[in-house]
Structures are given as structure tokens and as C-alpha cells.
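Q: Fold this one first, please.
A: Sequence and structure below.
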Amino acid sequence: MTVATTNARDIFRSAYENRYTWDEGFPGYTADIILTQGEEVHTGKIQVNADYTVEVTGIDDEKVQESIYNQMRDIVTHRKRGNFEGSHGKNQFNFGEDDPTGAVEILVTGDAMGSNYKVRGQEICQVSRVMGPMAFTINTEESLDTGEGYISIRYNAIFRNAKTDELKGKRDFKETYEKIGNYYLPSCQVINAIDAGGEKSTTEFTFTNLQLLQS
């Protein structure tokens, strides 16, 4: 392994392990949810269990319930603590190019999804990934320093055709978190989306009455 590879791995690992995640004692939590999309408003309840499984109740529309479930799974996945060696131990890391903002590009080989990253300071500020016919890039614009790691709270995702590079859509995310007990829990997520045809939509997930489950 070259010195460059070792350094690239160390830089990425430092940023990876600096992400805010829920610890092994995470008991799970419940919340009331309000989903607002255009003129439509839906209310229900969500429960995230200690094993990170998600339950959505009180929503009559099955498609809406599935949408909330999928969005909660995305949120929970980013808070789940992962082991670096388990996730990236077999991958090789090399430096790409520095960009004008001072971010360092990290090129990853061995990752089945073809992921590359940019790291600024001790934060991963960009993820580029190919999944089948779709390529996407996530850029972090603002983060929250919890004192126990960072949470991306303003970021965008750009989707393109992996072969032609044709723009397929863009989503801008803005999130807020509330500290309940020892844990930061999501209290709001707003998604402004633009599809390939230029049509715009806004979806807002508001979480209230956040309560940790009794462990």
C-alpha cells in the first residue's frame, strides 16, 4: 500500500468516524408526523425501534404511508453507527484532485457502487455514486456540529443518467434536529425537488411530540 493510499484512507476514515450517529444504547423513539405536499396534508405516527426498524401508523393512503416509511428509512440509515473496517476495510483509497474550496477528493476502488468522495476538514462534503443506470452526487452545504459528530442539515442531490450524463432531477434538502435526552432526533425535513422536465414540488416532513422509548 502506498503512502498516498494510506493517507487518503486515514483522511476519509477520520471524516467517516466524525459523522453523528446514535450509539449502542439508542432506545428508539416515537413522534407524530405531518406530511405536507402542495395542498395535501397527512398526519400519522412513526416509531423508530432500537434495532432501527421503522413503523408508520395512522396513514390511510398506502402510497403516502410507503413514502413516509422510505423517507424514515433514509433518515435512520444515516444515523446508524457503522464500523469503518466492516464497511470500507476491503476498499482502496487514493487522492483525486483538490477543488477551489479546499476539499480533497478521495477515489475509492473496491466499492461495488463506484463511490467517490470529497472531504473538507473532518467532514465528508460530497458523495458521488453510480447505482445501475443512475448516477448521483450529494453536496453538503451546511452541517450541525453536535459536539459528538456532525450532521448534514442542508444539502442537495443531483441525479443523472450514468451513461449519457443527462440531468434527471435535483433535490434540495433542509433539516432541523432537536436534542431529546442524549440523542439528536429529526424535527423537520423540507425537500424542494425539480424533475427532468423542470416541474417543481415541495415536500415537508414535520415531527412533533418526540419521545424516546423506554429501554
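Q: Good. Now the second chain.
A: Here it is, same layout.
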Amino acid sequence: MRDRPLFTAAQTAAQAAAPAAGTLAALPRRPRSAVGHLTAGCAAACAALALSGCGVLGKKNADAQAADATPTSSASQGALAFDVQVNSSDRAIAKHLERHLSLQRYTRFPDLRQTEFNRLLAEARTNASDLLAALGYFNPELQLRVQEGDTLEEGETELAPRTIVIDVEPGPQAAIASHAIAFEGDAADNPAAQRQRARIERRWPLKEGSAFTQTEWDSAKQGGLRELQKLRYPTAQISDSQARVDADANRVDLRVRYDSGPAYRFGALQLQGLERYDAEGISHIARIPTGADYSEEALLDAQQRLASSGYFESAFLMIDTDSEPDNATVIAQLREAPYQKLVFGVGLSTDAGARLSLDHVHNQLWPLGWRAVSQVALDMRAQKASTRWSALPQRNGWAWYLGGSLSREDVGDYKTNTLSLTGGRSKTVGHIERRYYLQYDMSQVTGNGLGSSSALLGSYSWTGRYFNNKTNPTAGFGLGAELGAGYTLTPERKPFARTRLRAQGFWPLGQRNEAGRRSRLALRGELGAVVANSATRVPASLLFLTGGDATVRGYSYHSIGTRAASGKLYGGRYMGVASLEWQRPLTLMGNVHDWESAVFLDTGAVANNTGHLKLHTGLGAGLRWNSPVGPMQADLAYGIQEKQVRLHLRMGFTF
């Protein structure tokens, strides 16, 4: 048995993938690939089977040859000096060799000397063996020959380029015979790291009997390293790795040892680049869990909160691994946004038609010093002016806010003017957002004696978002609940309650396709109720209407409601909406990653009492394009009750 100890890499700390102690472990940068070296005992095997460093060694040889093989005249670089052809029973292997053989670098050197050509030919066998070994084929049969070119056409003297033909029989692919994973450093005996150790072992992809390739070997090692670096051990590294090859038996034994280094805990937050805003308030936005185990996810979440707060143009967080591991400083590099910003927007939707908007942002508005976001928006159905002022969070995470809006819009078949004022507190921790607030609404409905009404409502809302992606989810779910109670103020004072429940989820189905994508089932539901005496006049802005792009497709925007005494469409006190959609990956114009098809069924109803709820159902099909800012969808839906086909366009995902 020939035992070839490849990658017998006694990797030192300087060669490790992770940054050594005393450096800054920055996020979200990923660790560099581990670099191993061969022991002296395997120098002979290195030439034929240097899997761990074949790319590096091949490049050095190729660079030296390229310098020596520089053309000696000014002949065109476009002409072929020779061609390369690989024949194999496995077409994938043939394509791999044709793509990666170092010979390909010299095919366009028309003045290549014969001695240089012979040298390249001699080294081609070793190069091909190295490439095959990297795929797990250690006993290939290789035959090289040169096929001289014939004249291109009758009467011409110029010869076609020579062809180097390589016949390859790869033989059996080596399989994994065993693997062993060891740990040193804090993770070796820390009970808190038991789950990490078990997860690395459980997720190790190269199980006994699976095929060996250099790429998968590197990926497996790095996958285990990332598991350590993501939690507690940002300075973890690979201290040793071996792939011992028994070429006669076509088997490989794998060994890897991880040095976790010390366990880190979050310490104080150090803000760099902060000039205008209160440091304590900004630290409350970041919410670094001081004293908790280091977590890459927690650090990235804090970074995202700072970046999306509106106070900064950029935010970059890192942990200082040069500080005490038990109290490691978290450094935030910040670039502040301008005090004020004006944004003009143009949009189009099938719900509201053409839309114009003007947004003004002031990050420290006098006299409160709160952040103010104000907007004027005009579309085919509504004209609205609104503003929202919000304070920096307090130590407990709760932040005060005030808001107001004045709008004129179509509510069913009526023009309605609405004034809304609100004030309360909000808090977002992890996936959960909570708010409690007091809201005043006054609505004036034009025509048919509906007149005006106003109400004061105290509410609490809870929203949980557990999607795998915030802008374009493919799995996960969201839940939302809003509960409120209050009194109407005009035309008479009467109590009422209002509640709204929402849910949406995505469930992957079937196997992944060649692009790694799966079909999925998307479910969506919504319930709403206003509980009050039948004579209580609740403001129109607190009643329910449905229909349109994001609710019941096949019907126009807010066309599903109840009927007033005049027979005109108006908001109702009870609402129910449900949607079922099947989304499938689609290859369109050669793009296998960004397109999807969908078929769907939507239904919804609105009434003033539950006994009068009448379902309006729409069904159809559509296309989805996964744009960088979220899904863009185009749906064609048929409204069964209206007996009409409608086009629905929508951009982005919100919950």
C-alpha cells in the first residue's frame, strides 16, 4: 500500500484562517482560507499530488514559463500556437481539464519555440494528474499526443495549429474512509461549547463513503471553523489538518484540529465618528448585550440597527480581540448622515395609479431634538401630508414618538377628509416590535348625511417577524396583533373596541433545483373587527375595506366593503382575508436565479355584522422578479364575483 500523507499541515497560528489574538476581528468580513504546508516527508508526493497547494504551485511554474515563453516577434497575439483537446468517458472531467490546464495560457503565443513547446508538453501530464487528484482521482491513465494540423483549405500553405490531445481514463474516485475532528483551546472542555462541537460534527459533510474532492475538503474545514467563529470564538483557527491518501485502495482518511482560542464576551461600545448625536442614545439603538457571549449575529444585528436608524450613512462594527476576552471592546465606526435631507419620488401602482411624493428628514429637529420624517404624497386616489417625530431610545429600549397626518382620499364611493394624531412608545428587540399609543381620528365624509365623526383610541400592537430574509423571504413566518379600546367623541360619546390580526408564512416544498432553489407555498390571512353598538358612528378611517394588489387580487383597490343606506360602497366593521399562493423557480432568458412563477387564490369579505359576510374570490397567475430591493410581482387575476380580469403590479415586501 502506498500511503501518501497529503496536506499533513501542521498549521501555525500565523497560517490560520482567523485573525490572531491582538488584531481586530471585523464584521461582516469573512475569514480567509487556511493555508497549509507539506511536511518534508511528503516532498516527493507533492510533485504529483499536491492537492492543498496545487493552485499556488501551478501558478508559480506557469509564471516562470510565461516569462521564458515571451514571443520573440511582433506576431499577432490572436493566432493560435496550438489547441488543447481532452477526451474522456466522463465529459465533466474533460471540460474541467480543458478549462484549467496550464497549457491554455500559452495557446496564443504564435512564436512559441519548439523547445518551449516540448517543455510545456512534458509538464502537461503532471498538471493533469494534479487536477485529477484535486477531484479525488489518484490512479488516472493519461496518454498525450500531438496532432499536427492540416492545411486550412486547398491551395493555402498556412497550416492549422497543432493540437495537444490528452486521453484520460480517470479511474475510480477516492472515497472517505474516516474522519476525525479534534478541538483545543477553550472550546475543548468548555461545557457551554458542547453544542458547537456537536454541531460541527453533525454538519460535517464528508461522511464515510462519500467521494473526496479538494474543494469539498477545504469547504468542510472552513465550515467547521465558521461555526466556532460565529459564537464565542472570533479568533478560532485551524491548527492542523491532514488528508492521508491510500492511492492503491482509493481511500482518504481526514483529520482536522481546531484551536478555538479564548472565549470572548461583549464589553463596552466605543463609538468612532460620532459628533452630533447623544452617545448614550445611539448606544441604546445598537443595544450591544454587554456581558453576553460574543455572537456574530448579535454584532451584525446591532450594525444593521445603526445603519437603518437614519442617523448614519454607514455603520461598521467589530470586536477588538486585542482587549480582554472577558470584556472585549466593541468598536463602531460611524459616518453621520446630513442633518437634513429632501427626497423627491415618482411611482406607479395598479392600486393608486401614478404617485408623486416629497420627503423631508431632519435628524435633530428643534426644540425636542427628535428625528422628524415628513411627507407630502399625491396619487390618483389620495392626497396626504404626514409627519412623525421620534426620540432616541431610552436605556430600557423604549422610544417616544409623535405623529400626525391630514388626508383626503376615496373611502369606498365617498370622498373623506381625515385628521389623525398619535403619540406613544415603541420598542424593537430581535424579531419582535411592540407599540402602545393613543390615537385621535376625525373623519368627514362628503355627501348623503354621513357627516363627520371623531374618536379617541388607546391601542397596543405586537408584531413578530421570523422570516429568513427581511426584503425577499423564502421561508419563515410573521404574526401581528393590534388591540384597542376607546370612545367616539362626536357626534356622541360611545365606547367601542377595535382589533386586527395578521399572519403570513412561507413553506418550502420539494427538492432544490440545479440553482439551489425550491418551490414554496405562501399563505396569508387577516382578520379585523370593530365592536360597538350599531348606532355608534365610528370614524371612517377606523373601518375596513379590502381588495387590490396586496389583499384580494381580481378586484380594484378597496372595492370590497359594505353598503351605506344610499347604496354606495363604504367601510365595514368586520373583515376577513385569506390567500394561498404556490411559487415556483423559473428559468427566463437564461436567468436561473431571479425569476419565479406563481398561481394563487385570494378571498375576502367585509360586512357590518358577521352574518352578512360574503366572500369575494379571485384567482390567477403571475411572475416574480427578485430585484435587489425586493420582489417585483406582476399578476393577472380573475375576480369571480365581478367577472373581470385585472392586472396587478406590486413592488417590495412588507409585513
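Q: Anything worth noting on the second one?
A: Confidence is low (pLDDT under 50) at residues 1-77.
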